[in-house]
Every structure is written in structure tokens, then in C-alpha cells.
Amino acid sequence: xxxxxxxxxxxxxxxxxxxxxxxxxxxxxxxxxxxxxxxxxxxxxxxxxxxxxxxxxxxxxxxxxxxxxxxxxx
Length: 74
Ligand SMILES: [Zn+2]
Known about the structure:
The chain is 27% helix and 26% strand. With 74 residues, the protein is an alpha+beta fold.
């Protein structure tokens, strides 16, 4: 299962961003481990529970999430 991290927002960011391990956009200095999840949605749920919402999905490592969102609209 993929490991997911959150980049906690700093003063200059609008919101926190959820990343998969290994993403180039993941910033090492503000990352916190969310855990191992089979899908992106579960990582979002944990981010909510920890109070990191609003958090956005990363355009680089969460493309599968975008595809599923699009597929669900059909
Ligand atoms: Zn990412």
C-alpha cells in the first residue's frame, strides 16, 4: 500500500497538500506521515480527523484521484 504524507501549511500557503511517498513536490521540512492507505480517499479522511482540512490533492502524485472524481460524474 502506498504511504501518504501531508505537507502542513505554512503562513504562505493557502492549504495543506496531501502527497504520496516519493512525490517530487513533497517538502521534507513540513511533512507529516498520515499512514499507509490503499487509496487517496482514506488519506483525505485521516487528514480531516487530524484537523488539516482544507487540504488539497497534489496534481503530481494524485492523478488517480482526479480520474476517479471524473469517472464518478458519469
Ligand atoms: Zn504530490
